[in-house]
Amino acid sequence: MIPSRELLSEENRRYVERAREVAEKYVLPRAAEWDRTGEYPWAAIEALREYDLMGVWIPKEYGGHEAGLLNLCLVVEELSRVCGAVGVAYMVNALGSFPIILGGTEAQKRRYLPAIARGEKLIAFCLSEYGAGSDAGSLKTQAVRDRDAYVITGDKKWTTNADAASIYTVYATTDPEKGTRGISAFIVEKGMDGFIIGKKEDKMGIRAVPVHETHFRACRVPKENLLGEQEGTGFYNAMMTLDRARPGVAAQAVGLAQGAFELAAEWVSKRVQFGQPLIAQEAVQFMLADMATAIEAARQLVYAAAQAADQDLKTLSVLSAMCKVFASDVAMRVATDAVQLLGGYGYVREYMVEKYMRDAKITQIYEGTNQIQRLVIARHIVRWMSGRDGLLSEFLNVTGARKPENLRSGEWIPL
Ligand code: CAA
Predict the structure, then answer these.
(1) Residues 118-161: tens digit of each pLDDT
(2) Of 29, 248, 318, 385, most Cβ neighbours within 10 A?
(3) Nearest C-alpha to atom 21 of ligand 1 is from which residue?
(4) To the nearest 10°, the Cα dihedral for 308, 312, 314, 315?
(5) Full-prediction pTM beyond 0.90?
(6) Exposure string for 42-60, b = 16+ CB within 10 A, e = fewer
(7) What is the pLDDT of residue 409?
(8) What is the mean pLDDT of the chain?
(9) Residue 40 class from Cβ within 10 Å (0-12 exposed, 13-18 middle, 19+ buried)?
(10) pLDDT band at 410 (very low <50, low <70, confident <90, very high)
């Protein structure tokens, strides 16, 4: 029962049905095993290909469905309901390909997007570095023009899908003096000289999806692989990409919360203590009510952000940060409560609930920590309030109260 899904269109529901079929037939039976062994979920990617779900967000002229972010989020949500790792293994292809969709030349789009849309090739995203996580603009990887090529040197952290992918969007500075305005983006292919997939991280959750360090040792990429026409547009490209990708993380969080909730609701309906099912206890009912309400609220915020992206609204950036912070906090809380409701059974691997808690944690961290999302939201509020009188001033006018000396408007308040 997902009450607010009633508001979706026929097309949205068709995506939900297809994704749910993939999730239940091909992911659910193997999620525990993939979590245990860390084996890449190729069977899930294969099924997503067969069900023609790999190019949902890619424009039609490059072989995709052009079905937008809302449908992408619905697919991610359904996959994550049964396995958070498969949700992100799928979604990272959007994170990696948005830079090309947003900033690539026509030739780059024609060269790279169709294979991604068909699911023949996976694409990953290389922005973060050891010293540049939240402060993405301080990245040190450098790209130097050398005749008909750029030579990239540096080390990247947290490349999700690294060895499963064969195409990478990579951010490097072409002019360190210019700070964020000197950052450029490049398309790197697996096998290019000097591109190395390094250490695999041993993670708490999303264990089936590999996250590696990636290294660029004088990696030579043709000059045509500079993303777009000019140097220096990389940081904007990364920010615009993250605005569109964060709702995907939030959708993953909603799916995880939904899955954990369903496991817990079923458990308390069947588990008998003190002569009756646990769900007969009001204390348990109230927990379920809070969990379900939080999930629906998070879901609607994700759908609103996705629709803002699909309608190219300026509110996308703030809604994207809001849905990411809210949905991931909900996922963590709901998954923790689900473990609590199963008691000791929740704490052991066999019942799978603890996996939701482990998988949920990363949604508060990657694609911008929740502290960074709050910073983005706060900056919007400060910008919005600078130079504008509001309701308080209206009331002061009506009541005739004197404005306190230091209550002035029209000032920029720097953060
Ligand atoms: N859209 C377009 N442009 C934007 C923008 C946006 N949303 N946000 C900022 N910009 C522009 C600014 O307008 C500014 O432009 P000018 O220089 O022309 O004035 C420029 O970018 C620099 O902006 P800021 O001064 O705001 O930059 P900042 O250094 O203060 O950083 C930040 C801003 C929001 C903190 C940013 O660094 C950020 O988002 N950090 C988090 C990074 C992140 O999410 N990393 C995760 C990577 S992916 C991952 O986790 C791995 C994975 O595979 C899943």
Answers:
(1) 999 999 999 999 999 999 999 999 999 999 999 999 999 999 99
(2) 248
(3) 236
(4) 0
(5) yes
(6) eebbebbeebebbbbbbee
(7) 60
(8) 96
(9) middle
(10) low
The CA distance from 254 to 364, in Å, is 12
Q: Which residue ranges have their beta carbon within 6 Å of ligand 1?
A: 92, 125, 127-128, 134-137, 158, 160, 180-181, 235-236, 239-240, 242-243, 317, 366-368, 372, 375-376
| Cα-to-chain-centroid distance, residue 59 | 20
Q: What is the mean pLDDT of residues 216-244?
A: 98
SS3 breakdown of the chain: % helix, strand, coil, rounded to 5? 60, 15, 25
Read off the tokens for 12: 């949205």
Q: What's the 348 CA to ligand 1 centre distance in angstroms?
A: 39
- Phi/psi for 9 (5° steps) reads -80, 170
Domains of the chain: 3-117 (1.10.540.10), 123-232 (2.40.110.10), 236-386 (1.20.140.10)
Distance, in Å, from the CA atom of 277 to the CA atom of 71, rounded to the nearest integer, reads 38
Distance between CA atoms of residues 226 and 151, nearest Å: 11
CB atoms within 10 A of CB 5: 15
What would the mean pLDDT of 341-362 be, rounded to a whole number? 98
Q: What is the pLDDT of residues 157-195, one digit of tens each?
A: 999 999 999 999 999 999 999 999 999 999 999 999 999
Give CA–CA dist 155/198, Å, rounded.
Answer: 9
Which amino acid belongs to residue 55?
A: G
**CB of 53 closer than 8 Å to CB of 67:** no
Place of tokens 């000032």: 411
DSSP 275: T
- Joined together, the tokens standing for residue 312 give 């190219």
Spatial separation of the C-alpha atoms in residues 91 and 100, rounded to whole Å: 15
How far CA 335 is from CA of 57, 246, 261, 297, 339, in Å, comes to 29, 20, 7, 16, 6
Residues 6+ apart with CB under 8 A from 313: none
> Which is it for strands 272-273 and 276-277: parallel, antiparallel or unpaired?
antiparallel
User: Which residue has the least CA distance to atom 11 on ligand 1?
Assistant: 236
Mean pLDDT of 207-236: 98
Ligand 1 centre to CA of 178 (Å) is 15
CB burial class (10 A; 0-12, 13-18, 19+) of residue 139?
Answer: buried
**10 Å Cβ neighbour count for 397?**
11
